[in-house]
Structure formats: C-alpha cells, structure tokens
C-alpha cells in the first residue's frame, strides 16, 4: 500500500441518495456502485451544499459554501482568489498528477485552463469512460488525482422537456411496468407558499405542473434508467482500475452534485430543500483500508461539498488551505473516533435570471430533525422529524409543542450564518 494513494473521484449530476440499489431501492439496478459500496462505506446522511449544479460544484472545488465564494446560481465562475486555492492546485502543488474529465459547469461545460487540472475529456458521457480507462492504463510515476464527472442522470431534464437525450435514448415501458408513485407524492400541508409560486414561475424547468399520475410514474422510470445507464459507464472505469492492479492503491470516492425531486411532493428538478433534492449518495472506498467494508454509516452528518476537500487532503498527506469549514471523512471511514459536527447546512436560491422569483432558502439538518426556512412568504419555515417522518409530510413548525426544537434550530442557523459570513 502506497503512503500516498491514487485518488479517483467519480461523481454524477442530479442523483438522489436513494437512487442506488445498495440503499435498498428495488426500482433500479446499480451493480457498479453496489460493488463499490461492498468494499467501502456509504454515508447515509450526506448532503450537498446547494441543490443546483454550479454552486454545488464550486463547493467541491473550493471546500467552501457557495455564498463564501460568491456563487448563488448556475453559470457563475469561481473568482480568481478562490480558484488559485482550489483542490486541483492544492494537490498538483503537492506532487499529484491532477486530471479532470467530463462535465465542469463552472460555468463552462468543459474544464478551462487555470484550475490545476489537465483535461483528459471534454463534456461527454459518450467518451468519458474510455478516456478514463486510457488514463488508468498508463504508467504512473507519481500518484494521481483523477476526477470523472458524468452528466447523467441529468438527462431527465431533457426527457421532461421532450427533447432528445444528449447521451443516447433509454428504453420505454408501459405505465404498468413503471415504478409506483412515491409515498410522499402529495404536497404537504403548511408547505411554504413560495415553492409553488417558484414552480409556476419557471414552467420550462418544472414540467411536473402538467404531469398526470401516470406521467410521474413514467418520469420515475426514465430517471432510474438514466441512473442505470451511467452506472454501467462507472462500472467500466472501476473494472479498468481493478484490471490495472490499482484497486488497493486507489481511494475511490463516489457522489453527486445534487438530487432530483423524483415526484416527491410532485416536484421534479432541484432547487428545493426537500430530501430528494438535497441528500446525495456518498461512497468512500480504499480496499483493504476502509473499516468494516460494506457498512452504511447513519451516524455522521456529512457535506460532500465541504468535506470532500479535507478528506482528499488527509489521504494524500497534504495540508489543506486555512479556513476550510469541512471535516475529513477518513476517521469515520477507518472507524477511528473523532469529534464531529452536530449539524449540516445547505443553501438555495431561485435565480431570477432563469425566471425565478429570487427566493432564498437555508436548511439545517441535525441528528433527528431538519429545519428549512425561505426568505419570504406564508409558512416560510418547515420542521421535520426525519425519524418519524422521513417523507417530510408533517410540518412541525406550526405546532406550539415543538417550539423549543424550532428555536434551537433557528439558533444553529443564526450561528452558522454569523460564522460563515452569510448575508441570508
């Protein structure tokens, strides 16, 4: 085992945490990700920093919250001050060979110059696995940090708009063969009114406004087929790593930038702070080193945007930039005791440039509860007991008997806002 392992970060776009077979989902098959989970640890309470592409990706690259790097919506660049201390520069300066393939979206579709990576593939799910395989098979005289960024299952956006899928078609099925509606299909009582107003303001994105029950079932079927499509590509990359004899020398991390509404609360797309949009898959595997392989960690509250950077630095033996708010996942992955956070925070903004009304929101997730607050409107606060109500159907914020829990979560958010310079 090398002291400085190779590192392979694979991530998808718009994949909800529950959209993997190893999470107990019987509506799809993900053999590649299931095999990866068998040799590693799957973090069940992992969240993105923002349920939207560019802000979430900015966090992954910088290790900071989107508001800290001045990004609130899509198609905004990382400022030069933060770009120079990004993860690519940090690892390349420490002697790692840093390569990037696939979707960038910060804001360019493909990786531009100036981020510490060498591009091995442009924005293409058709070519990305092949280019990664070619890179893996090369002789490596120093450790590498390789990023494979796939677009799917993001093609569900094109499917919903009834436009051609960029990376090829998926099989159709009669509605009887499609997944059933989710248990939390209904719009919950006392939901913030701004959510449906934002939905109505952006009909180009929120196609679910006109969906029938059967349409939602077809949507869920299409989404799961897209997940299976990208899982097959990921499997090819992992097979190449194994065939090259590098599996036990490579830390493999899998995640996604955000989730998808998937019909829960009749929501497609992202932006909203419900679980389906903001909770993401996160698997970490270093074969032979990960403790109790195959384990599902439901204890640690994780932020993939904040924790990815310090985790990679920890395994690489590299000092991360000062001031990063994240934590290394290496101690929990190796079952070593360490202090941990008592909450994780996410943020969102419905961008007026894309037709949104400018609504901003924040989420605080603690061990049992989840608090959400939006910037305006009736019933703008939500409080859910995720142990008793994992589908987020009962808003406890409107009940007097839960005011103590509500006040505590308000205080946690206020402290986070002050600590991170958030102007929410």
Describe the fold and architecture.
It comes from Handelsmanbacteria sp. (strain RIFCSPLOWO2_12_FULL_64_10). With 424 residues, the chain is of the alpha/beta class. The protein has helices at 31-39, 53-62, 80-83, 87-93, 128-137, 156-160, 193-201, 213-243, 275-278, 304-316, 330-333, 403-420, and strands at 6-12, 41-43, 46-47, 97-102, 118-121, 144-149, 250-256, 282-285, 295-297, 302-303, 344-349, 360-365, 369-374, 381-385. The strands form 3 sheets. Strands 5-4-6-1-7-8-2-9 form an 8-stranded mixed β-sheet, sandwiched between helices. Strands 11-12-13-14 form a 4-stranded antiparallel β-sheet, with helices on one face. Strands 3-10 form a two-stranded parallel sheet. A hairpin with a 3-residue loop joins strand 12 (360-365) and strand 13 (369-374). The N and C termini lie far apart (46 Å). 50% of the residues are buried. The model has no long low-confidence stretch (mean pLDDT 96).
């Amino acid at each position: 085992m090398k002291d400085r392992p190779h590192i392979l970060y694979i991530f998808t776009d718009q994949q909800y945490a529950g959209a993997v077979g190893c999470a107990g989902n019987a509506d799809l098959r993900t053999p590649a990700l299931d095999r990866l989970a068998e040799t590693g640890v799957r973090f069940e309470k992992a969240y993105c920093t923002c349920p939207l592409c560019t802000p979430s990706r900015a966090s992954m690259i910088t290790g900071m919250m989107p508001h800290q790097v001045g990004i609130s919506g899509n198609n905004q660049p990382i400022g030069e001050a933060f770009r120079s201390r990004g993860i690519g520069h940090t690892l390349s300066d420490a002697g790692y060979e840093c390569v990037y393939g696939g979707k960038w979206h910060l804001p360019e579709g493909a990786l531009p110059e100036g981020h510490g990576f060498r591009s091995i593939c442009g924005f293409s799910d058709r070519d990305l696995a092949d280019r990664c395989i070619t890179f893996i098979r090369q002789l490596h005289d120093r450790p590498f940090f390789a990023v494979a960024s796939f677009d799917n299952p993001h093609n569900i956006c094109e499917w919903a708009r009834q436009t051609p899928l960029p990376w090829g078609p998926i099989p159709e099925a009669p509605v009887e063969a499609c997944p059933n509606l989710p248990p939390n299909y209904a719009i919950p009582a006392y939901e913030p009114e701004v959510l449906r107003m934002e939905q109505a303001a952006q009909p180009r994105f929120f196609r679910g406004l006109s969906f029938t029950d059967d349409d939602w079932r077809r949507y869920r079927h299409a989404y799961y087929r897209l997940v299976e499509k990208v899982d097959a590509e990921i499997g090819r990359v992992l097979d190449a790593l194994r065939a090259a004899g590098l599996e036990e020398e490579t830390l493999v991390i899998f995640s996604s930038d955000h989730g998808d509404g998937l019909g829960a609360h009749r929501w497609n797309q992202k932006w909203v702070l419900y679980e389906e949009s903001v909770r993401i898959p996160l698997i970490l595997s270093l074969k032979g080193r990960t403790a109790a392989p195959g384990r599902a960690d439901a204890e640690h509250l994780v932020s993939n945007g904040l924790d990815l950077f310090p985790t990679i630095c920890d395994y690489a033996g590299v000092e991360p930039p000062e001031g990063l708010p994240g934590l290394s996942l290496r101690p929990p992955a190796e079952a070593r005791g360490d202090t941990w956070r008592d909450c994780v925070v996410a943020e969102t903004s419905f961008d007026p440039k894309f037709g949104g009304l400018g609504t901003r929101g924040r989420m605080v997730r603690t061990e049992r509860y989840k608090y959400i607050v939006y910037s305006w409107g009736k019933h703008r606060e939500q409080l859910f007991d995720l142990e008793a109500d994992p589908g987020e159907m009962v808003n406890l914020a409107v009940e007097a008997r839960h005011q103590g829990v509500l006040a505590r979560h308000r205080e946690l958010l206020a402290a986070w806002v002050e600590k991170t310079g958030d102007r929410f």
